[in-house]
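REQUEST
  id: r-88c1
  op: predict_structure
  target: Nickel pincer cofactor biosynthesis protein LarB
  payload:
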Amino acid sequence: MTDKQDSLDSLLQAVQSNQLSISEAKTKLSHYDELGFAKIDLHRRQRQGFPEVIFGEGKTTSQIIDIISTLLVHDEVVLVTRVDHDKAQDIIAKYSHLEYHETARIICTPINNISKSKYYTSIICAGTSDLPVAEEAAVTAEVMGIHVKRFYDVGVSGIHRLFSHIEAIRQGKVSIVVAGMEGALSSVVSGLVDHPVYSVPTSIGYGANLEGVTTLLSMVNSCAPGTSVLNIDNGFGGGYNAAMIIKMIEAY
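RESPONSE
  id: r-88c1
  status: 200
  body:
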């Protein structure tokens, strides 16, 4: 029996036992919740395995609060990306049971409350300046129930730092490589492991880096097979994709 069928059976049993009204059941069965400024996709988890994620940048505090409220009504995991410090303080004041990860700029369901996968993804970060993107990837994967191991400040200018961790990296099922400048770390890691590598270029670098465009093109042109490249600064995408692969592995 699928999770979707289990959920539907539980809902019908709750109506039958008068634990849930018909109107409440209809609300839970709706495909989306209309908020005026947004239509919240309530069936995302059934289709893709994880609820709708809130992109916080550009949204007001009140809009984010309203969307979180809808997700909580439907007992969904909360993941809000790209939330600055000031906005986060107001949101956490409203929902004190959520937590804010400042480096990642993420508000989410407490990570310790989420059971983790058997296998892990490695988050490999070239330098300290790349940490916000690396942490966005790491926290995203953790909220999605994935065991994460972090290997930070192991860029190619001191490549011996990477080699001291390579056996642990190889034992993971997916690697996410986060790097700026010329993005060389991505090709190095891809040539040393036997699993998929998601490369995330960052906008960190001097003028000719072109705010990450140089890094992006370098990663796209990698000679190492098994590499997939995300958009500039898209740590969320790296974490999400890695989580999907590990969930798929553990389903079989």
